[in-house]
Each structure stands twice: as structure tokens, then as C-alpha cells.
Design goal:
Blueprint (H helix, E strand, L loop, with lengths): L12 E5 L2 H4 L21 H4 L9 H8 L15 H15 L3 E5 L2 H4 L10 H16 L3 E7 L5 H7 L6 H17 L5 E5 L9 H5 L11 H26 L4 E7 L2 E4 L4 H23 L4 H9 L10 H7 L4 E5 L3 E4 L7 E4 L2 E5 L5 E2 L5 E2 L1 H15 L3 E5 L17 H20 L3 E7 L19 E3 L11 E3 L1 H11 L6
Parallel strand pairs: 1-2, 1-14, 2-3, 3-4, 4-5, 5-7, 6-8, 7-13, 13-14
Antiparallel strand pairs: 9-10, 11-12, 15-16
Helix pairs in contact: 4-6, 8-10, 10-13, 14-15
GO molecular function: beta-glucosidase activity
InterPro entries: GH (IPR017853), GH_1_N_CS (IPR033132), Glyco_hydro_1 (IPR001360), Glyco_hydro_1_AS (IPR018120)
Protein name: 6-phospho-beta-glucosidase
Length: 488
């Protein structure tokens, strides 16, 4: 007799994940306002160094708006999903998707973020997308805020550093909850909420230099507190408005290992993991853990709270925990170790046991099993892997075929470890591979860093026909879904 933990459940949600700012385009059509993502330029690799193209300043934004800077902004155009969603969703249906993760661009609904009334044309667009998903029986998984803060809120209030954004976010969430209450069951409040401490602009539309006399950490954690309160309040709203709703939080799971068995390395790795899991502690357990309170005290970080904040956070915890997983990292207290780069990790110690991707990210399939077990042991809430994938260079053969065995190998090994975690007893709701269709990279605004099962004919300079083509991985993932993960 087959155990319930021998493999993925019959209702396991297989699919893929995207973000509005990386696929939609149409940045200035149908009443949409500018978002923070629309200000992130493409910086060629040879000019980038160790910095990320997402570090934007207030001065730069004003110069762009005044026409004094002429850079290229790939996220303004994405892959034109705004006009090709029917074609793309048909391809997702052909893959066999049970779920599709998308985000709503806040500035498409409230162009300035603080508008009195929503933009009806923006609401209708998502109506059409959701109806198209329903046509193919694909469950939508919708992120409310995926690195898409209305730019006007950044310029007027300095983004999530201002408490005023809580009310604006509530109004936005209530609007889309009421509009799509019969179409969307699964919601995520903030994408990779912990990234605000790595890039306050990306994660919260915050310009640190505008806050005088405070460190980047102080500013970022204060903004994160406002997001915690907002997340709790909209979770409450969702439960009041939508029958049988399920609301999740999300972190970028940055699993950290000690580089050696030196006790100080082990302690440092534990502290790094704690800082990463602080965000799930607040949203899943409803409280600030003691370790972060000590850290705040030692770093002279003071979180300004209003009366009732802690009670709101405690009362309205999430129903499930979602996370992205791409790579692991290692740390050491010793004066040695080769450095590597990774997503939002500007320097980490190279793990000699792991291979690396074209972009220097260490490939660690076993880490996804560790991450799943750690999260489930800590919180005993259902888990959802909502991003996982390999960014790589793809070559189109003369006959148009794309042989991406490297992507198949990466995903196959990670899905196998997911299966092992399920056998360990982890309650896993689903898996949405990141970038099922090639899209503009979040961190570097490149197209050449491709994740998709579906190739999009567009280069880093924005040239191309935007034609969609199936890669070898398309047929592989189609079979994975068809066999519920048995055929890898």
C-alpha cells in the first residue's frame, strides 16, 4: 500500500511563476502609472562590476523624469505579456499547468498609489487574464506586491519607510480582493519580503539617502515593520472578503552553511539563517523573535511601532509559507575563502562541493530539502515553493531547436529533493518554476539570463521578434506534470 508520503499528492499544484514588471510591458498604456521597476536601467555586464542594477537614487529618478538621462529600461517593456497573455497562457496550458503565479502591478490599479479611485482599465486587464486561466482550469496564485511600488509613493512618501503606505496598500488589496474574490483563492502579500534589507528600493521603494542620520539597516527594518502590519491587515481583509481563501507570506530562502566546522563558523551560519527566518517568524508565528530583539539592541536599531501593531501581527498570521530557492551560501569567520556571487548576495564563500551557474550561483539541490524541512519543523504550516529555476545562456540551433539539458538537470535534481522532503513528512502544496517563459531579469534587467521552458526572441538590447519557441525543457516539464513528478 502506498504511503501518503511516497510522492506528491494527487492535488499537487504544478506550474510556473512570473512578475508583472518582468513580463507585462505596456508601462505607459491604459492609465498605468510608473512603478519603481520602471526606473531600473539595464547596465551591461562589463560595466556592472559587483553592484546590482537595481540600486537607484532619488537624484537619478528626478533626472530620468526630467529627461536628463537616456538609459534603457527593459522592465518597461518586458516580453509584452500585456498583449500576448492569451498565447502565453495557452502554452502554459499545453505544459499542463495546474497553477500560474502572477503579480498585479499596483500602479496599474492605482497609478499613483494614493488615488481616490482605481483605474478600471487596469482592473479589466487582470479580469481578462484570470478568465483566460479559468478557461484552462489553471489556478491563479496572485502576489499583491512583487517589487512594484508605485513610483509616486516613493517620491512623495519614500515608499514603505512611511507608515502612510499601510492604508494605501489596504485600499489596493481590498479593491482587488472584492473584484477577484470569485476568481482567486491563493494570494501572497509581499514577494521575498526579506529582500528589503538587501535592497530597500527594490523591496519597498525606499530611498535610504533621503533618511538622514540612520543606517541602511535601521531604515530597512522600519520599512519591513510597516509591511508586516500591512500584510497582517490585508490577510484579515482577505479572510473577510473571500470564501475559502488562503493567504501566504514569502521569503527568499537564503540557506546559509558554515564554511568549516569551526564553532564560530557554525554560530555565524546560524545567525545568518535566523536573520533570514525572522521574516517568517513574524508572519507565521505573529511575533518578533528574541534573537532579532537582541540583534536590534546590539546594532542600535529601534523599531517605531504604534499601539496595537503587535496585536495585529499576532492575530492575523498567514495560512501558508511560500519561498524562493535558487542557491545556498556559506560563511566563515576565518580569513580565507574564495568569494562567489549570487542573487542579492554580493559576496559569499565558495562551497567547493557545489557547481556554479553561468551567473556564479552555486547549485545545491539538497539545500531545497533542508530548507523545506527547516521551515516545516519551525512553523508546521503548509509550504509552497513559488520560485526555483536556472538562469542560463541558451543557444538557438539553425533548425530553431533549443537544447537546454542543463536546465532539465537542475530542475530534475531539485524536484527529486522536494520529493524526498515530502517523504520526510513536509506538507508541500505546490511548485511554480521561476520564469516558465523567458523574461527580463530582476537583478540585472537582462534577457540573456534565461529561465524559461519557452524561449522569447528578444536580446539584451531589446531587439527581436518576441516569437515564442519551445525548448527541450518544455517537453520534459510537460511530462513531469503529467506523471505528477514520477518521471524526472
Amino acid at each position: 500500500m502506498k504511503s501518503q508520503h511516497d510522492g506528491f499528492s494527487e492535488n499537487f499544484l504544478w506550474g510556473g511563476a512570473t512578475a508583472a514588471n518582468q513580463v507585462e510591458g505596456a508601462y505607459n498604456l491604459d492609465g498605468k502609472g510608473l512603478s519603481t521597476a520602471d526606473m531600473i536601467p539595464h547596465i551591461p555586464k562589463e560595466k556592472r562590476g559587483n553592484s546590482f542594477a537595481m540600486d537607484v537614487t532619488a537624484d537619478y529618478i528626478e533626472k530620468v523624469l526630467a529627461g536628463e538621462v537616456q538609459d534603457r529600461y527593459p522592465k518597461r517593456h518586458g516580453i509584452d505579456f500585456y498583449h500576448t497573455y492569451k498565447e502565453d497562457i495557452a502554452l502554459f496550458a499545453e505544459l499542463g499547468f495546474k497553477v500560474f503565479r502572477l503579480s498585479i502591478n499596483w500602479a496599474r490599479i492605482f497609478p499613483n498609489g494614493d488615488d481616490k479611485a482605481p483605474n478600471e482599465v487596469g482592473l479589466k486587464f487582470y479580469d481578462h487574464v484570470l478568465d483566460e486561466l479559468r478557461k484552462y482550469n489553471i489556478e491563479p496564485l496572485v502576489t499583491l506586491s512583487h517589487y512594484e511600488t508605485p513610483l509616486a509613493l516613493t517620491r512623495k512618501y519614500n515608499g514603505w519607510y512611511s507608515r502612510e503606505l499601510i492604508g494605501f496598500f489596504e485600499k489596493y488589496a481590498e479593491t482587488v480582493f472584492k473584484r477577484y474574490k470569485d476568481k482567486v483563492k491563493y494570494w501572497i502579500t509581499f514577494n521575498e519580503i526579506n529582500v528589503i534589507t538587501h535592497s530597500p528600493y527594490t523591496g519597498g521603494g525606499v530611498l535610504v539617502e533621503k533618511v538622514k542620520g540612520k543606517t541602511k539597516e535601521q531604515v530597512a527594518y522600519q520599512a519591513a515593520h510597516h509591511q508586516f502590519v500591512a500584510s497582517a491587515l490585508v490577510t484579515k481583509l482577505a479572510h473577510e472578503i473571500i470564501p475559502d481563501v488562503s493567504v501566504g507570506c514569502m521569503i527568499a530562502r537564503m540557506l546559509t552553511y558554515p564554511a568549516t566546522n569551526h564553532p564560530e563558523d557554525i554560530l555565524k551560519a546560524r545567525q545568518q539563517n535566523n536573520k533570514n527566518l525572522f521574516f517568517t517568524n513574524v508572519q507565521a508565528k505573529g511575533e518578533y523573535p528574541s534573537f532579532i530583539n537582541r540583534y536590534f539592541q546590539e546594532q542600535n536599531i529601534v523599531i517605531e511601532k504604534e499601539q496595537g501593531d503587535d496585536e495585529i501581527i499576532k492575530k492575523h498570521t498567514v495560512d501558508y509559507i511560500s519561498f524562493s530557492y535558487y542557491t545556498s551560501t556559506s560563511v566563515t569567520t576565518q580569513e580565507h575563502g574564495e568569494k562567489v556571487t549570487g542573487n542579492l548576495i554580493k559576496s559569499a564563500i565558495k562551497n567547493r562541493h557545489l557547481e556554479t551557474s553561468d551567473w556564479g550561483w552555486q547549485i545545491d539541490p539538497v539545500g531545497i530539502r533542508i530548507a523545506l524541512n527547516d521551515l516545516y519543523d519551525l512553523y508546521k504550516k503548509p509550504l509552497f515553493i513559488v520560485e526555483n529555476g536556472l538562469g542560463a545562456y541558451d543557444k538557438v540551433e539553425e533548425n530553431g531547436e533549443i537544447h537546454d539539458q542543463y536546465r532539465i538537470d537542475y530542475l530534475s535534481k531539485h524536484i527529486q529533493q522536494m520529493k524526498e522532503a515530502v517523504k520526510d513528512g513536509v506538507e508541500l502544496l505546490g511548485y511554480t518554476a521561476w520564469g516558465p517563459i523567458d523574461l527580463v531579469s530582476m537583478s540585472t534587467s537582462e534577457m540573456s539570463k534565461r529561465y524559461g521552458f519557452i524561449y522569447v526572441d528578444q536580446d539584451d538590447d531589446g531587439n527581436g521578434t518576441l516569437k515564442r519557441s519551445k525548448k527541450d525543457s518544455f517537453y520534459w516539464y510537460q511530462n513531469v506534470i503529467k506523471t505528477n513528478g514520477e518521471s524526472l
